């Protein structure tokens, strides 16, 4: 499973890059707002330090506007993926941009039927929002499972990009249920490292190395 990082913060992306932890980046208007800089400049900067795909979301909600904005975003760098909402207009824009060879990420997916429509429209990625489904007391992970079955049943090329990941368990279960990619906030990604027995074991080794006066 690939890891994308869900942030528009270039410092966080650089830090994760030094550990070789990420295969791409996803952003959305809320993350751009948090970063507090010019949208297209942020995307250009992220693309420069990211080898894999970088999702940048349109702000128009009509078909023509999304197509025009998608083409502008795609020109920023060759690894830009145009993020489109899962609406009728979004699917039409997805089909048009796909026909022009532009990669797409259809976002705000909350049902298997929505995902099926995005796959039929030729989406490169479909983004089911796991955490937000859990928020309304429904099982977000079941959606990953259903999408995996549907995409495999019909050999669609669309990749499942598990989004709205909030916990290490979401990451583990997305991998178990066969998501192609998980887009993960930096804190959760670093949190995957944590295990109390690793901390305890390392403390003991450090203490014993001192006691044994080991020098290298
Ligand atoms: O990738 C989508 C993600 O940013 C949404 O996450 O936590 O706002 O539901 P969240």
UniProtKB/TrEMBL annotation:
<dbReference type="GO" id="GO:0042182">
    <property type="term" value="P:ketone catabolic process"/>
</dbReference>
<dbReference type="InterPro" id="IPR001585">
    <property type="entry name" value="TAL/FSA"/>
</dbReference>
<comment type="pathway">
    <text>Carbohydrate degradation; pentose phosphate pathway; D-glyceraldehyde 3-phosphate and beta-D-fructose 6-phosphate from D-ribose 5-phosphate and D-xylulose 5-phosphate (non-oxidative stage): step 2/3.</text>
</comment>
<keyword id="KW-0808">Transferase</keyword>
<dbReference type="GO" id="GO:0006098">
    <property type="term" value="P:pentose-phosphate shunt"/>
</dbReference>
<keyword id="KW-0963">Cytoplasm</keyword>
<dbReference type="InterPro" id="IPR013785">
    <property type="entry name" value="Aldolase_TIM"/>
</dbReference>
<dbReference type="GO" id="GO:0004801">
    <property type="term" value="F:transaldolase activity"/>
</dbReference>
<dbReference type="GO" id="GO:0005975">
    <property type="term" value="P:carbohydrate metabolic process"/>
</dbReference>
<dbReference type="InterPro" id="IPR004731">
    <property type="entry name" value="Transaldolase_3B/F6P_aldolase"/>
</dbReference>
<dbReference type="GO" id="GO:0016853">
    <property type="term" value="F:isomerase activity"/>
</dbReference>
<comment type="similarity">
    <text>Belongs to the transaldolase family. Type 3B subfamily.</text>
</comment>
<protein>
    <recommendedName>
        <fullName>Probable transaldolase</fullName>
        <ecNumber>2.2.1.2</ecNumber>
    </recommendedName>
</protein>
<dbReference type="Pfam" id="PF00923">
    <property type="entry name" value="TAL_FSA"/>
</dbReference>
<comment type="function">
    <text>Transaldolase is important for the balance of metabolites in the pentose-phosphate pathway.</text>
</comment>
<keyword id="KW-0413">Isomerase</keyword>
<dbReference type="InterPro" id="IPR033919">
    <property type="entry name" value="TSA/FSA_arc/bac"/>
</dbReference>
<dbReference type="InterPro" id="IPR018225">
    <property type="entry name" value="Transaldolase_AS"/>
</dbReference>
<dbReference type="InterPro" id="IPR022999">
    <property type="entry name" value="Transaldolase_3B"/>
</dbReference>
<dbReference type="GO" id="GO:0016832">
    <property type="term" value="F:aldehyde-lyase activity"/>
</dbReference>
<keyword id="KW-0704">Schiff base</keyword>
<dbReference type="GO" id="GO:0005737">
    <property type="term" value="C:cytoplasm"/>
</dbReference>
<feature type="active site" description="Schiff-base intermediate with substrate">
    <location>
        <position position="83"/>
    </location>
</feature>
<keyword id="KW-0570">Pentose shunt</keyword>
